[in-house]
Amino acid sequence: MATLVGILVSLFALEVALEIGTQTSESHPSLSWELNGQRQTGSIVIDSNWRWLHDSGTTNCYDGNEWSSDLCPDPEKCSQNCYLEGADYSGTYGISSSGNSLQLGFVTKGSYSTNIGSRVYLLKDENTYATFKLKNKEFTFTADVSNLPCGLNGALYFVAMPADGGKSKYPLAKPGAKYGMGYCDAQCPHDMKFINGEANILDWKPSSNDENAGAGRYGTCCTEMDIWEANSQATAYTVHACSKNARCEGTECGDDDGRYNGICDKDGCDFNSWRWGNKTFFGPNLIVDSSKPVTVVTQFIGDPLTEIRRIYVQGGKVIQNSFTNISGVASVDSITDAFCNENKVATGDTNDFKAKGGMSGFSKALDTEVVLVLSLWDDHTANMLWLDSTYPTDSSALGASRGPCAITSGEPKDVESASANASVKFSDIKFGAIDSTY
């Protein structure tokens, strides 16, 4: 009887699963890359959050930053009534690819809407994300952030999201990886419209300053490795460990005043050359010249993981990472437990990195394969000041200065108006043994 009940529940879940629209065919832009020196034929897919969500006709299930009360009175009926549509990558989202190169545009005025930024994932095949085991490996790519001003972030990073977009584990997530489902990260985002295939409509609150976004009751948490967060003025790479990967609610998400009580280290441990004492290393016409493309090499040393190293290659020259030059922190050029613990003490920041297990905890989290994410975004919460300016803005504490941008910069409405034509380019993605990809 228990087995029969289980079958009936599964059949019901399949019956009410989020459906796939037929008004725009889903054709993934191709993107080749290298694995152990061998060319891989891959492609990219845009996240489900960016897609048109409608009923069996053309009525929106989600319009602006609000759900339709008629089509989505509860999560189950929302899944039953709604269709996730295919994407016009260039026309709607400003995304283009050629060979091993991908460009993400910032503001794209389409036939029916204006799109802001994007988030895409590398696919192994039409229904599966490419996944990576990082320990004792090296990841390399070339970035061009010359067209990204203060307030924008051209990001490339890994998250421990399911390779099939959750389709096999959660029957409601029927569109799966082919339609960009399953996202999670260490910030435990509440703005995901679907988590585990279920509409995140409970307690949904439209954003007060983002006409396209809102937040629901649930967040979705998982380990994150920020390989590259950058604009033309600043860059950082950051480790974020989570004690588990899961849908969360309330305290488990680290919401509100419980930031350090959640399952993920939201602050992470970062290496930002400007923040750690070298203001002449990265930027236009500096040692690593952000006005030109730069090849970025990240090495994951050891299993268990003990160190994450950074190397740059530009103009035919290998450039070692900058060394720290701040009081209380030994002169180092990579992320280790010692570096993270020392900089947390020096800055007075809460050491949630250590609380979540430090490098050992992160190493354990990397036993799970991770998915490659590429994105371009502006920041409706903190104007990207945590990356490229002084944050908190009223602080003179060590480590508060993170880049040269003004504390008044990065306001999304200003960036979207003044820098609509901004873009980021990623190319030459390579993965393999240490010192083999550059």
UniProtKB/TrEMBL annotation:
The keyword Signal applies. GO terms for molecular function: cellulose 1,4-beta-cellobiosidase activity. Its EC number is 3.2.1.91. It holds the Pfam family Glyco_hydro_7. InterPro entries: ConA-like_dom_sf, Glyco_hydro_7, Glyco_hydro_7_sf. Belongs to the glycosyl hydrolase 7 (cellulase C) family. Residues 1-17 form the signal peptide. It catalyses: Hydrolysis of (1->4)-beta-D-glucosidic linkages in cellulose and cellotetraose, releasing cellobiose from the non-reducing ends of the chains. Gene3D superfamilies: Glycoside hydrolase, family 7, domain. Transmembrane segments: none annotated. Keywords: Carbohydrate metabolism, Cellulose degradation, Glycosidase, Hydrolase, Polysaccharide degradation, Signal. PANTHER family: 1,4-BETA-D-GLUCAN CELLOBIOHYDROLASE B, GLYCOSIDE HYDROLASE FAMILY 7 PROTEIN. This is cellulose 1,4-beta-cellobiosidase (non-reducing end). GO terms for biological process: cellulose catabolic process.
